[in-house]
Amino acid sequence: MHYHEALKHCIFRYTSGSHQYGTNRPDSDIDMRGVFIAPLYCAFDIFQTRFVGAGTLKQTLIAAISAIEGADMAAAKNLVQNALMTDRGDLSLSVETVCDPKADSELQELRKFFKLAADCNPNIIEFLYVDDLIDICTGEWELIRRHRDLFLSKRARWTFAGYAIQQLKRIRVHRGYLINPPTHKPTRREFGLPENSKISREHQNAILSLPEEHIADKLKDQVADERRYAEALMQWNSYQQWDKKRNPARKELERKYGYDVKHSMHLIRLSRMAEEILRDQQVLVRRPDAEELKGILRGEWKYEDIEAVADGLDNRLDALYKSSSLRDAPDRKKISELYRVICAARYGIYV
């Protein structure tokens, strides 16, 4: 099922991203997100029971090729395996997400949406708390929204913080590229290695798993050199990929301020949203601190300020987690009942 077919069965769609948060600028993209209910025939179609994926096949293969070039076969294998999984990738054209290839528009099938919302996924849980910029909203969505508290739980402590930490890792890696970029592609000769490796990666792992007294010093040093070379090559390929893909305007901002202000803004936003959920049991999508967040985009925060917020994140959230009156986990039983009620109304089938 493609996007425009899924759109006929859409129960909710809104403008997401910076326009929703109130942090948009004149050049901000328009991102549309929503939820659809698969038509009943999908459950009985023997050839096309799945949904076309998010169009990430090209990016997955590029990343896998980069990992192979960096001699990281384990990473390449992991990328392809994830792409083959029905809930993560689209090599099998089976993820329950559909996208408009001509626009930044994405719809989640209701079952997948419920699962992600129950996990308190930051990009999904906000759907339930959006009040503005909505262009499709059916009675079915209103019913779901009235029961949105079933989905909210203390899991937000880990999911929102997890996303924030991912942002921090990107910021630190990119800042390293800005301050001390790799100057050339590493060669095996630089690491004292022969032109072609005589020890496969699998054998390297086997050698390193042995007790040190069973490994000759020369062999141990050679494996260590192979690892250092592979790490240097992976960093070079990662830097090249980052440098080529950067938006020119964003590249200039990073050069000007010395760090990625967009990732930093999202780090602060996610951190504060996690605190608000645990403390106040609410998801503030339209940000009350929008002007301050836009100030980060304008470079008004020092990099050290971003680091300070990030460094104190775990301690703050740990304290709020202990004191929060939120349920520990979502009410899966009632969420399942809600899904059956919606199916009964949509399909006329009672289960």
Fill in the keyword field for this structure:
single chain; 351 residues; alpha+beta; Beta Polymerase, domain 2; 5-stranded mixed sheet; globular
Describe this structure in words.
- The protein has 351 residues and is of the alpha+beta class.
- Among the domains are: 1-49 and 96-153 and 330-351, Beta Polymerase, domain 2 (2-Layer Sandwich); 52-95, no CATH class; 182-247, no CATH class.
- Helices cover 54% and strands 7% of the residues.
- It is built from 16 helices and 5 strands.
- Strands 3-4-2-1-5 form a 5-stranded mixed sheet.
- Helix 3 (57-69) runs antiparallel to helix 4, helix 12 runs antiparallel to helix 13 (290-297) and helix 12 packs parallel to helix 15.
- The two termini are 25 Å apart.
- Mean pLDDT is 84; it is low at 49-55 and 86-95.
Helix content: 40-55%
Give the CA-based shape.
globular
- Mean pLDDT over the full residue set: 84
Question: What CATH first level of the domain at 1-49 and 96-153 and 330-351 would be assigned?
Answer: Alpha Beta
How would a crystallographer describe the biggest sheet? 5 strands, mixed
N to C succession of SSEs: HEHEHHEEHHEHHHHHHHHHH
The CATH architecture term of the domain at 1-49 and 96-153 and 330-351 is 2-Layer Sandwich
Give the radius of gyration.
Answer: 24 Å
Q: What gap, in angstroms, lies between the N and C termini?
A: 25 Å
- How large is the count of helical segments? 16
The total beta strand count reads 5
Low-confidence stretches: 49-55, 86-95
| Beta-strand residue fraction | 5-15%
The structure class reads: alpha+beta
Instruction: Report the CATH topology name of the domain at 1-49 and 96-153 and 330-351.
Output: Beta Polymerase, domain 2
Largest sheet: spatial strand order: 3-4-2-1-5
